[in-house]
Amino acid sequence: MRWEYGEIHTEMAGMNVFLADGGIAEYLVRHWEYRQGTALAIAALIHAVLIIHFFAVAPLVFIWLERKVAGRIQDRLGPTRVGGKFGWLQTLADGIKLIQKEDLCPQAADRMLFRLSPYLVFVASFAAFIVLPWSDGWIAQNLDVGIFFMLAVMSLEVMGVILAGYSSGSKWALFGGMREAAQVVSYEIPMAICALVPVTVLGTLNMVEIGWAQSGFLTNWMIFHDPFCFIAFFVYFTVATASVKRAPFDLAEAESELVAGFHTEYSGIRWSYFFMAEYGSMFAVSGIATALFLGGWQTGIGIEEAILIPLRGWGENFLFKGFTVGNYIANLVGCVVFISKGCLLVIVQMWVRWTLPRLRIDQVMAACLKYLLPISCFLFLGVTVWPLILYEASSAMSATPRTTLGRPLGEKGHSPEPRGRTSDGKKTSSVPGQEARS
Amino acid sequence: MSEILKHGPLVVFGATAVGGAIAVVLTQNVVRMAFWLILSLGAMAGLFFSLNADFVGTAQLLIYVGGTLVLLIFGVMLTASGPFVSIKSSAGDLVKSGVAGGLLLTLILITACQVHWESTPAYDEVGVMSAGYNATADGNTTRPLGHAFLGARPDKDLGRPPTDHLSPGYLLPFEIVSVHLLVVLVGAAYLARAKKRKA
Q1: Which residues of B touch A148 (CB under 8 A)?
Q2: Residues of B (61-100) whose Cβ lies below 8 Å from A
Q3: Domain membership flag for residue A281
Q4: Is residue A420 part of a domain?
């Protein structure tokens, strides 16, 4: 269900490209002769375990990082003692403390909802990682509606927060939940429209195709495609920061007014689920920004063409059948690049948080409905008109009707003849339903 | 073992959808109802995903779970006087809703039973349904009805010379009904507000 790329790949199409192509389920069926159903279940399990590891370890690092960044910005040191010089293990110590804490439930609370809502937040945030393209082919579920799925699933997180706020039976929590509902429901709209801006140019919702369309040098990234995409990146990032309720938009928590907002009544491990979800979502929205605007897993210095693509297919059947070293290395490089870009954006979110003061709730709503929403609508309009203007301008100036800068609407792909798309534009797939469905 | 795993998603999601729906009916607390609805509608989305209908599943999540239900809970939070709102239906309500629900169930059951499942078209290896239009060979499903709602009548128009006028479908009534719903909602909001002002 993905593009074949280049001649190298077409000749490999029927060969062993484990950890690069086809997915784990197909590999298990082909090489270990598992039945389809069993293979799908095992593949789903492997994907889930890998993602949950990232999902659990990333907050561990981010929370430590947040303290360090906050400390440095405020001219402090941050954690220094636990685990050596830089306080590496501070979050782990916190985690152990949180597990030991008593799991309280207030008398006025609706016990069932109070206990369940942290899981709802957790699951919604986790599900977004299913379609995050770590690297070419390293994606748990390569949906054709990838980015749409991601936006839909991320919008479910608000549900858990509202339920948590409502079921706590506390005024502070209720206010926090109401603010969260009002804020997230309105910020979702500009977020989706901003995500549409590069999607309109690329003509695909598939995360892997979006990644491949931005291969090559830095200038092929969507952020540098046209002025509208450039502005859309910053608008998207602002809106995404708000939609994961980070400062200056963290009105749902607002310590100075609402004690701790929607999670006032939570303690121990359930409290920490909210924070795991928050840091997970921070990476998820940064991942969307990376995939849509910043070239996904592409390095941006053009080494894909020179080094990584020729590497694919090298060292076949190394150690055990179906394992190809070249593919593995190429994908690993991509994965590291993707995670680095995502983490960089997360650090920017932290930087913003510790630099700007919190807005008032009416300012938050006004910023969205009066400014960000019209801006994003304008950007969407602009990006649809942009290629037509360029087309007109270029055909007026020269005899050649085509320009390399922009192309008429309805044409797919950003780079000339997108990588690996076969000549008739058909996507090829060797085994149907190969991907794990959990 | 393999067969169990293959049909596992169907069983799990189906059971969750039905169980959630029953819980919605049996619960009296509005917010808990909303929670069970999340479960039920989410499982419906899961069913769509396991049928490879990714777009429909995603739209289900985005519109019903992420949109409608959030607004529902938001509305309850804004209007509820006590912390927990409970709904107690009178006997008359129970009878009325029972009759309406029973009629709907009968309709759905009749529709489902009329499909000739053994003759529904087999999916080929790539997962594409065989081309062409033939209601009987398709297992007598409700597909003609769906076509008609979209304004196309392949059951009447196929095979006729292209110069003929096409048969009308039900697109216009369908759209009118949906606009009607909007009008009803606006009217309801207006009436509710007008009452408030007088008081």
Answers
A1: 55, 58, 62
A2: 61-62, 65-67, 69-71, 73-74, 76-78, 83-84
A3: yes
A4: no
Residue A350 within a domain:
yes
Answer whether A110 sits within 8 Å of B70, measured CB to CB: no
As for the ipTM of the complex, it is 0.74
Assigned token pair, B36:
């069970």
CA-to-CA distance for A165 and A174, rounded, in angstroms? 5
Q: Which structure tokens are listed for A11?
A: 């000749």
> How many domains, in total, are found in chain A?
1
Percentages helix, strand, coil for chain A (3-state, rounded to 5) are 65, 0, 35
Q: Which domain holds residue A152?
A: 108-397
Inter-chain touch B73–A159, beta carbons under 8 Å: yes
pLDDT tens digit at each of 438 positions of chain A: 333 333 333 333 333 333 444 567 777 777 777 777 777 778 788 888 888 888 888 888 888 888 888 888 888 887 888 877 787 888 888 888 888 888 888 887 788 888 888 998 888 888 888 888 888 778 887 788 889 999 898 888 888 888 888 888 788 888 888 888 888 888 888 998 999 999 988 888 888 888 888 877 888 888 888 888 899 999 999 999 988 888 788 777 767 777 777 888 888 888 888 888 888 999 999 999 999 998 888 887 877 777 777 777 676 666 666 677 777 777 888 889 899 999 999 999 989 888 888 888 888 888 888 899 999 999 999 988 888 887 777 666 665 544 444 444 444 444 444 444 444 444 443 333 333 333
Q: Looking at chain B, which residue has its C-alpha nearest residue A436?
A: B50
Which residues in chain A touch residue B38, judged by CB atoms under 8 angstroms apart?
A: 120, 159
Q: Nearest 10 degrees: CA dihedral of A376, A378, A383, A388? A: 170
Contact A270, A279 (CB under 8 A): no
Interface touch A437/B9, C-beta < 8 Å: yes
Single pTM value for the model = 0.78
Whether residue B54 and residue A37 make contact (CB cut-off 8 A), yes or no, is: no
On whether any CB of chain B is under 8 Å from the CB of A161, the answer is no
Q: Closest CB to A174: pick one of B34, B49, B77.
A: B77
Query: Residue A29: closest CA among chain B residues belongs to which residue?
Result: B2
User: Does B50 contact chain A (CB < 8 Å)?
Assistant: yes
Q: Does domain B1-88 have CATH number 2.40.50.140?
A: no
A–B: how many Cβ contacts below 8 A?
106
Q: Are A119 and B94 in contact (CB under 8 A)?
A: no
Q: How does A288-300 read in b/e, with b if 16+ C-beta sit within 10 Å?
A: bbbbbbbbbbbbb
A159 in any annotated domain: yes
End-to-end distance of chain A based on CA atoms, in angstroms?
17
Residue in chain B lying closest to A34 (CA): B2
**Contact state of A144 with B9 under an 8 Å Cβ cutoff:** no
Here the tokens at position B167 are 């048969």
